[in-house]
Structure prediction request, 165 residues.
Amino acid sequence: MHPNEITEVLNRPISRELLARDVTRLAYVAKDGTPRTIPIAFTWNGSEVVMCTTKNAPKLPALRTNPTVALTIDTEVHPPKILLIRGRAELDVVDGIPEEYLRMNGSYEMTPEQRIEWEAEVRSLYDGMVRIVVTPTWAKLIDFETTLPSPVEELIRQREERRRG
Prediction:
């Protein structure tokens, strides 16, 4: 997929709404060769999906071995809106708490006092974190109104050909 095609998909209004959500599902291949999908908080910085995790997270050795990942960001309503992204995970070990981590967790409902307590707890727990940064190399939006899963699109084309034939 060409970069301009990826940008076009990610700049669609529905994609922008999905990229403003709190949680994505990160799919990767574990060290034992089996697939894993985990929910993880994220933020979109306009060109990259950024997730943060503990320095001892089991997914890190797997991502160092095989950085190819897939992300799914979707809604829970019918029809669902689904943004699929593929890319490579770049790992960035940082001292302290990345600002993205504080921002991506900022939309949860907390009073100002709860927010101060939460941030203090986070800062006392972590001496550093790992930023997992994914630059999209492929993207597809499925909204079931203007876009459909590729196999369904193919079935529709086949049906139209049968009707014309």
Notes: The first helix runs from residue 3 to 10. The longest strand covers residues 128-142.
